[in-house]
Each structure stands twice: as structure tokens, then as C-alpha cells.
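Re: export button greyed out
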Amino acid sequence: MPPPRLTIQALEKSFGANRVLRRLDLTIAPGEIHALVGGNGAGKSTLSKIIAGIATADAGELRLDGAPYRPATRLAATAAGVVMVLQELNVLPTLSVAENLFLSNLPRRGGVIVNRRELQSRARLALGRVGLTHLDPDTPAAALGIGHQQLVEIAAGLAQSCRLLILDEPTAALTQGEIETLFRLLAELRAHGTSVLYISHRLNELAGLADRVSVLRDGQLVAMLPIADTTHDRLIELMSGTKTAPAARAAVGSAAGQLALQLRSVRIGTAVRDVSLELHSGEILGLGGLVGAGRTELLRVIYGADRRDGGEMFLGADRRPFAPRSPADAVAAGFAFVPEDRKQHGILAPRSVRENANLARLASRHLWLRAVDGTAEAAATSRVVDSLAVRCTSAEQPIAELSGGNQQKLVVGRWLGREVRIWLLDEPTRGVDVDARRRIYALLAERAAAGEAILVASSDYEELATLCHRVLVMSNGGITAEFAAADLRPDTFMAAAFRGFASTTAA
Amino acid sequence: MHRLHRHSEFLFFAALLALLVGLFSAWSDHFWSPPTFDTIANRIPQLALASLGMTFVLVAGGIDLSVGSVAALAGAAFGGCVIDLGAPVFIGVLAGLGAGLACGLFNGLVVNWLRMPSFIVTLGMLEIVRGFAYLITHSQTRYLGERLDFLQAAIPGTGVSVAFGLAIALTAAAHFVLTRTVFGRHVVAVGTNEEAARLAGLSPSRVRAVVFALSGGFAALGGLCHIARLSAADPNGGTGLELSAIAAAVIGGTSLMGGRGSMLMTFVGVLIIATLESGLAHLGVSEPVKRVVTGLVIIGAVAAEATRSRFAARRTFASR
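Workaround output, generated via the alternate export path:
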């Protein structure tokens, strides 16, 4: 019998007094897709970074195909056949797709000059493997949407021959079709003997994909099970360490309050075409669809972050015309906004939890001459930290040191310091662990119950189904369907999401 | 822990300053004497004021290369009003400050409207404003007599001049504004991540307009202190002031990438530069050597501080 692809024994890693991994053991078989799940700060990211040579362990032993394995750098890990596709996108925007793919080993002529033709053909091959056959390898990476960037990252990972591929939340930004391509690809890799370590918060997708699943909690392995022996609720139970009731609908009942926001024939270039919608107080309205359907553009225009090319917007039951010239205008009118890209558009990375939690509360320029009230600030910070259970060592800890889920809790929670009437959230739980997700859902349900209106754009069908009273589907810039929560079904939803792209005759 | 960290940074530079004073005292018998401190104290107001404005701009994520020219323009405007037009002194002061504020505001608005890097806009303004200073004075130095001597007079009961007192008071005020007010919070947020700040409902363009206006105003006030000392408005005055101001801010730990900086530390940076300049002059060092040494101190101070804070961060992290 061959040795396991990867054996991990008694792995230890601490950051200061914080023990992230505690005597962790794990075994991955050759040709196995091994899922890794766990809550906030369970140690998934740290573990995968150690395996991929991005971080080093304090103690413990790793063996790759029976031989001692201790990569000092990511490059060393790659040379040994261990490749990781990072969760945070790593694409260099000014370089072409092809250059991004082969950055670390560009084909060269005479050792110096880049062999463009060779680069092109290799890139086409790599892109073809992830289903991006129509993508020109010379496209600048900046021109790609976030979903395509993720696929390019995965293609880059696959372009290198590897024994163990590590994927961290690879489907977060992918459309259904792209996800299917990826899964088919992973199955192929498995058939050729490659092992895959697959980290995901989307428990439902594991069933059809993985062979075994390992559950981490507080830096330890709590269970390693064949996927067939698990259920969604059982995994949640193992991760949280407590028995939980099956996920309740966050939003109960249909709340038909007064009109909060009305859009009439809003147009933005070719991205959004004649979108009309109504959002009511106390309602959570979902905005579903494929990546690139125009949801982000629509939310940004409502919020005043971009200009619209046509159409009208109205606020409140008395339909006051609303034309924000900046996000500051929208905030003054009672809007809250949670952007799609947390790192670039959400957080002040080097600043403290306290400053990030109070950013929106202090947003008005009418407060400029006021001194910051330390007591009010501390109170606002603990309100956000307590109500969303943000895990941080202190209010002064830089937000960059927090996990993605905890950062997102602060980006959402900082609006609690203001009087909000309308929430606009763009992918509020992307790359966020199960605990953070549940807390954000609970918060939104609570805000809706308090009469606030909520518009959520999401690529996650489960999220829309769990959270929303009503779901609109956007496709190719237009709204193609509306579902009441009770009528939502995956097949009709998916059909609506593709409808706008199918009919070429549509305006 | 963060408070402690800030203190240790301050102590580090206080020690550096003490080291400079000690070295100069050891090398020169006459360094430790009232005239030396007069020279240092004289150099401080203009540089300190320009550096405070520069720190606002740098923390907000911009840079202002026009402060030297703006300082000269303020002096020229004062001279033009008071000497050529015979206006009262306070009108001249208002004209000088107004010209500085206007230049600064113009910088901020152009950066906002044309969405251009402030480096380029203020580089252009460096030339434009200098040109206006020449035009106003017809390229000639205006002698002011005793008109601004009140800025040089000692504050009763202290040994320091009004200008020096003004620099101290405004340093304290700027420190309060940057660390304690909502506006200061906005400046830091915009400098840290402009788009995140905008999407949280802040107005980066307004913040920018104000910090550039402040920079212009501070530079103008610095320019007035300068001409008060010389009793003459020189259209060539303030040349290179922008680089000294940037150096003072950077020695004080202000980041050129925005989002980080402290007014108190900038003031310490000003003290270091002023001490170095007059100390070297005192030793009779030639101008070329002076510049070489000044340059080395700038690089050395920032490098030493970076090493120290990395070391301190590792220690606090490990002991957590």
C-alpha cells in the first residue's frame, strides 16, 4: 500500500499567546478530494498556509508521499508539487492573463526574453482546462470580473504539475456554470492521482465533490469522516461543538410595509438596462443572478457611488425624488452600504477595530469640528463587537489581523451607529465562515423587523433562500423574474438567471 | 500597549535630539550658548508651520510641493499691500494668509476636479506661485522696516518670540485636530483607504480641499514669520522649504503612503532638522558637507525608527 499523500502529525502553531493549531493530525490519501471545514479562527487558513509553505509551523511533522516535507517558501512547496490557490485574489491587474498565469516561470528565449508565442499557447491550454476557452490570454487581468479572476488563479494553480492542490473557498465568486466546470476538473485531477485539499464554507457543495471531510475546531481535528456519513446539520454541530437547531429562516413572514425605495427605468451603460423595482420597509429583498448580471453596478448607483445614465429614484411613501451625487448624500438620506470587495472597499486595514467600527457613525462632515467622544465611541464599539460576537483581542487591534468573517462583521455592524432606513449589501457573506454568516443574517432579520428596508445582492442561492422575503433575479442587466420566498425553486431561479443572456433579441 | 508604543517612539526621537545636542556641545565649545539657541529658535517657526500643513496633507494621502513658493507669495503679498499700497499691517497679514489659503484650496480643488495626483498639481503650482511672487514684487526684495517686528518680539515673561509661541500653539492645536476631532479621523481614513472611506459615507474630496487649504494657510503664516525675521520680503524666499517640511514630517514617522502621522512627532522632526542645521553651521562645516550630513540623518533616522518599531512590535506581540 502506498504511503498517504500527506501526513500531518502533532502540528503546532501559535501567534503570540494565541494557539492557532494544537497538536493537529491529518491524513490525505493519494487521489482524494479532502474537504476541510471549520468555523471562524478554527485554523483552516493557517493549516493550509503551512502546507503550502506560506507559513511555518512551530512544531510537528509533515510527510509528503512518505518523505519528510517542510517547505520554507511557497516556491519550495510548488517545487515539491504542492500548489495553493489563495482565497484573497492574487492577480496583478496590469499584467495580462497569460503573464499572471506563468509569472513564476515565464517561458524564455535565451534565458532573458519572454517567449510570447510559447506563453500564449501555454496560457490557452491552461485557460481551456478551466473552461475559459473564449478568453484572450492577452487581456489585462484588470479587465476581468472577480469570478473570472478566481478561475484564472485556479488555472494558474493547475498549470503547474502538482501532487496536492489546495483550494481555499474557490467557488465564492463563481457562477453555477463555472462551479460545475471546476468540479468536473477536480474529478479529473483525482482520477489522475492528484490529491485536493478543499476548504469551503458551502457545506452543501461538498456532498457531490469530496471523498472525506475533516472538521477543525479551535486548532484541533474533531472529526475525519467519509462524506457519505455526514449531513449539513451534523457538520455544523461538529464545527460549533454544540447541537444546533436546523437553520431557521432568518426572515419570517412577509413584511409589506410602506414604500422605502422605488427605482424607475434605471440605466447604467450596458450593465443595467431599465431596471424598475420597489423596496418596502421591513422587507429583505434579494437580488440574485450570475456574476456580471449588473447587480453590483445597480447597488453602487443607488448609493451614489457611480452615476446613472437614466431613470429615476424615489424615497419613502411620499416618493421624494432621490438623486445622490455621492455616497455621503445617500448616507445622509439614511442609507447603509456593504461593498462587495471587503479588502479594497470595506476596511481601513491598518487601523483599529474601534476606528473601523465607528467610521460610519462619524461619517457626517457636520461633525468635523466636534471632538470625538471617547465614551460614545467605546460604547458604539462594544455594541458592534458584542452584538455580532467579533473575535478580537482588544478594540485597539488592527482590523487587518482579524479573520475575514470578523472583518465583515465590523463592516456590516458599523452602520448600527447610525439611523439607517435602507440597507444595500453586496455579497455580504462572501468568504465568511458559518458563524459570521449566521450572525449577519440574524442582524439583518432584526433590522428588517425593526422596519428597515434591506436590499441584498448575492450569488449564493442558499443565502437568498434563507434570508429574503422576496427575490428578484437580474440577468444581463435586466430583471427577469420575481419570486416570493415561498415560491423560490433552484431550477426556475437558475432559468431566470440565464434568461437575459439567452435571448439576443432583448433590448 | 499602543499608548506605550507611541511613547517609545517619542522617547526614541527625544534621545536622538539629545544625542545631536550632546555631539555638537562636545565638538564645539560655543554650541551651548544663547546665540545658538536663538538661531535654532529662529529657524523653527517657518519650518514648523509649513511642516504641520504638510503633515495634514501627507496623512490624507497627498503631498504639497508648493509650500515654499506659497510662503514666498505670502511675503510678497504682504510687501505689496503694505509697502506699495500703503495698507495697514493687519491688511497685509490678511492678504498674505488669504493668498496662501487660496493657493492651497486651488491645489485641492484641481486635484479633485482633474483627478490628478497631488504631486503633479502642486509641482505645477510650485512654479506658478513662484512666478506670481516675482510678478508682485517685480523680482525685487521689499524692505519692511519694523512693520512685522511684533512677531519677533519676546512673549513677556518668556524668552521665546511671538512667532515661536505661535508655532508651539499651532502644533498643539493641529495635534488636537488630527487626533481628537472627527475631521482628523476623516483625514486618517481618507489617507488609509480613500475608496473605503468614501463608501462609508465620508467625503474625500472635501477632506482634500480642506487639508490643502490648511497647508497653504500654514505655509503662508510660515512665510510671514520668515519675512518678519529678515525684515524683508524676498521673492526667492522659502526655496526648498517643501523638501525640509517633508523631511521633518518623515523623520517624525509620517507615512508618504498616507494614513499615518503625528503633529507632535513632526515638531520633533523640525527640532532635529533645525538643531542639525545650526549645529553644523556652528562647527563651521561647509555648505556641501552640511547637505551631505543632513541627508544622511534623514535616511538614518527613518531607518533606525523603522528597525526599532519592528523590534518593539515583535516584543509586544510575543508577550501578548
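The first strand of chain B starts at residue 142 and ends at 143. The button fix ships in the next patch.
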